[in-house]
Amino acid sequence: MTAAALHQLIVCEACTWPTAATDHPADEEKTNCLTGADLLAALQALHQRWPYRDQLSLKTTSCLCICDNPCAIAFVGRQKPSFLFGDLDPETTAADLLTTAALYVESEDGMVPLYQLPKSLRPHRIARLPPAP
Asked: Rounded distance, CA 92 to CA 95, Å?
């Protein structure tokens, strides 16, 4: 995290999302799939003019180990629970992820109830992990 950023949105680099031409990422070459890098690029484009950009940094990790649910991201904040989302379409979810990130940043305790999430992301929340001691 940068000195000012108390929160991170972490994108899995290993994730691939099938395009309409494929049924599953493993079935075709990666050229027929969108990737975590595509999701990161979409997020970065929106993040540049996002009002909370100094409070949340965008990062990548080599793998979030939820390969059955690509593309995947995690929200991490100091003294806040972490949230894991998966099965995200890199072409359509970036704006909703930043809407969710704003709720996370604004929340003192990091608790973002399911009903506050954009409807498109509600079925994609996989886990909430307690904050580190």
From this structure: 8
